[in-house]
Amino acid sequence: MIRVLVEGYLRRENGQLLEAHSTVTAVIQDGFILLVDTSSKEYRNKLIDNLNNAEINAEDVDAVVLTHSHEDHTANLDLFPNAEVMMHPLEASDISYSPVHDNEEIFPGIRILHTPGHTAGSVSVFVENEHCIIAGDAIPTESNILKNLPPGINIDRDLAMASMHRILSMADCVIPGHGNLINLRV
């Protein structure tokens, strides 16, 4: 089961990014709990409330995949003291983590996709039985899909577009880095 715990949000004005809070997604499957990203400090109470509403105890979270190391995706990591933290080794960070790589199965039916472009080590999480990809900022918002645009902040536009197209070719649904689940095959 995939559940969006916190719907992320981006606010821009005159082309400038003013506010960013990532989506937090739970994957609950075969007795384990995986979270993808932890959002910003400003969304901490919202995350705690939604964990409680979903009857998820923070101490029971088995793993957290960080799609990349930007603070709006990592700021609440301390809420999950027993979780194994996973991130791509190309991410520059002082966070202690287990490295993950492209096409690595981290749990049965759940794979890491290396989707660089926003950052060198950006990853997405493919939940195979649901044909759904939790994209992080490889696809920050639904608007990126609709307008066929890369993330506004990227290290390589062409690489970012290739990652976005890879995700869209594989998935029936996508959860962007800053938004709710999008059904692609309606």
Can you give a write-up of this model?
A six-stranded mixed beta sheet has the order 1-4-5-6-7-8. The chain has a six-stranded mixed beta sheet with strand order 9-10-11-12-13-14, covered by helices on one side. With 186 residues, it is of the alpha/beta class. The protein has helices at residues 44-53, 71-74, 142-146, 157-170; strands at 2-6, 9-13, 16-21, 24-29, 32-36, 63-65, 84-87, 98-99, 105-107, 110-114, 123-127, 132-136, 173-176, 182-183. The chain has a single domain, classed as Ribonuclease Z/Hydroxyacylglutathione hydrolase-like (Metallo-beta-lactamase, Chain A, 4-Layer Sandwich). Residues 22-178 form the Metallo-beta-lactamase domain. Pfam families: Lactamase_B. InterPro entries: MBLAC1 (IPR039344), Metallo-B-lactamas (IPR001279), RibonucZ/Hydroxyglut_hydro (IPR036866).
Major sheet, described briefly?
6 strands, mixed
Structural class: alpha/beta
- Give, in spatial order, the strands making up the sheet with the most strands: 1-4-5-6-7-8
Task: Return the domain count.
Answer: 1
CATH superfamily: Ribonuclease Z/Hydroxyacylglutathione hydrolase-like
Could you tell me the number of beta strands? Answer: 14
Low-pLDDT stretches are none
Please write the string of helix (H) and strand (E) elements.
Answer: EEEEEHEHEEEEEEHHEE
- Overall 3D form: globular
Q: Please tally the helical runs, counting DSSP H or I stretches of 4 or more residues.
A: 4
CATH topology: Metallo-beta-lactamase, Chain A
Question: Which range does the strand content fall in?
Answer: 25-35%
Distance between the termini: 20 Å
Rg from Cα: 15 Å
**pLDDT averaged over residues:** 96
